[in-house]
Structure formats: structure tokens, C-alpha cells
Amino acid sequence: MRPWDGFVRSEGLLIVVSGPSGVGKDAVLTEFAKIYPRARKCVTTTTREPRAGEAQGVDYTFVSEEEFRGRIDAGGFLEHAEFCGNLYGTPRQWVEERLREGMDVVLKIDVQGGLAVKTQMPSAVMIFLVPPSMEELERRLRNRLTDSDEAIAGRLVRARQEMEQIPHYDYIIENDAVAQAAEELKAVIIAEHCKLRR
Ligand code: 5GP
């Protein structure tokens, strides 16, 4: 046994990535996956119907409501939430197994879900992605061309509410340029791996 072995982390890190709708979480995480292959993105579970082009086990694990409720009762989720009449949850066993194997697990999850995960797993590394400005966030939401003015206004209100929870997070990364944000995320994770385990 080396004198420092007790301070070195052998298990993976649980990385919670939150940020307002439109900030570019998917783009940053796609880039991050290319430059940091040790991380695995968690596929969450839902009761909603698959949309066209979505695949079982890739976009979500699609299950019936009965199955989902059974898994809640069995303690199968790190956290779960209802959204627009459907249930969504983070599978506890999959996450714990990957962490034990030494893999880092990325959870792309809203603020509420992120805080619930932090309660369950206090060692989670909490990362909040922000846009360069609120004007830029609005511009990105409009560029999607998928939402009405009303829906965009609603998302901006929600964004401000979510940002009130930033003090519960460990790191803020600004997504001005995707490649740069992904590099910063990688730097944070590498530093977290070097941190003494106490
Ligand atoms: P959608 O149905 O559009 O794919 O997702 C609806 C919302 O549910 C999104 O905000 C998405 O981030 C969120 N969501 C997806 N999986 C989970 C989960 O496991 N837990 C929580 N709390 N939210 C989730």
C-alpha cells in the first residue's frame, strides 16, 4: 500500500450538468464526449411515448407507467420528476455500476433534478452552464425556430428562476464557444480527479 492510496479516488465522478433551455447543453456535451472518452452519458427512464427517430435505450429507456412506479417503490431512481404528465427518472443502478467501474457519469438534468441527485450523492460535481448574456440566450432560443414568442418568454422566465439556484452548484461554465466550454468542462473534471479524497 502506498502512503497516498487512501487519498486517491478509484471510482468515477458523477457529473451533473444543468443550465437553461437554449444554453447549448447538448452541443457542449457532444463535444465533451469527443475530448473526454472516460465519461458516459446517462440514459434516463421515461413513461412518455418515443418520438419519431427516438430509439429505446439510446434517447431514453421507455417503460410503462406501471413499470416506472414499481421502480420508484423499489428505490430504483436517484431522482424522478413529472413533466407534462409523463414521468422521468435517473436509474440508480446503472449510475452506481458505472461509477464503481471507474467511469465518469454525466447527468444532463434540470436544476430541481440536479439538486435531488446532490442530496443522494453529495460527492456529485455540480456544473452550471450559462450563456454569455440573457440577450444571447434569447437569440439562441429564437434561432431554434421551434417555439412561439409566448413559449420563448416562458423559457426565459424559467431560465431566471433556475439561475437563482446557481449557489448550489460548484462550477459555472460560460458557453460562448462550444469547443471552449467543452475544454473548460474537461479541465474541471480532471481537476476533480486530482482532488484529495477525504
Ligand atoms: P422530453 O420529453 O422533451 O425529452 O423531456 C422533458 C424534460 O424532462 C426535459 O427537461 C428533460 O431534461 C427532463 N428529463 C429527462 N430525463 C429526466 C430525468 O431523469 N429526471 C428529470 N428530473 N428530468 C428529466
Structural notes for this entry:
This protein is α/β, with parallel strands linked by helices. It has helices at residues 25-35, 65-73, 92-100, 111-120, 134-143, 149-163, 178-194, and strands at residues 14-18, 39-41, 45-46, 61-62, 77-83, 86-91, 104-108, 125-130, 171-174. Strand 5 (77-83) and strand 6 form a beta hairpin. Helix 1 (25-35) packs across helix 7 (178-194). The model has no long low-confidence stretch (mean pLDDT 94). The structure holds guanosine-5'-monophosphate.
| β-sheet strand percentage | 15-25%
- How many strand elements? 9
Taking Cα atoms only, what radius of gyration do you get, to the nearest Å? 18 Å
Report the span from N to C terminus: 17 Å
Specify the structural class: alpha/beta
Short summary of the structure?
By secondary structure, the chain is of the alpha/beta class. The protein has seven helices and nine strands; from the N terminus they run E-H-E-E-E-H-E-E-H-E-H-E-H-H-E-H. The mean pLDDT is 94.
Which keywords apply here?
198 residues, alpha/beta, 5-stranded parallel beta sheet, 4-stranded mixed beta sheet, globular, binds guanosine-5'-monophosphate
Topology:
Elements lengths: L13 E5 L6 H11 L3 E3 L3 E2 L14 E2 L2 H9 L3 E7 L2 E6 H9 L3 E5 L2 H10 L4 E6 L3 H10 L5 H15 L7 E4 L3 H17 L4
Parallel strand pairs: 1-7, 1-8, 2-7, 3-4, 8-9
Antiparallel strand pairs: 3-6, 5-6
Helix pairs in contact: 1-7, 5-6
The chain binds guanosine-5'-monophosphate.
The site of guanosine-5'-monophosphate has 11 residues, from strand 5 and strand 6.
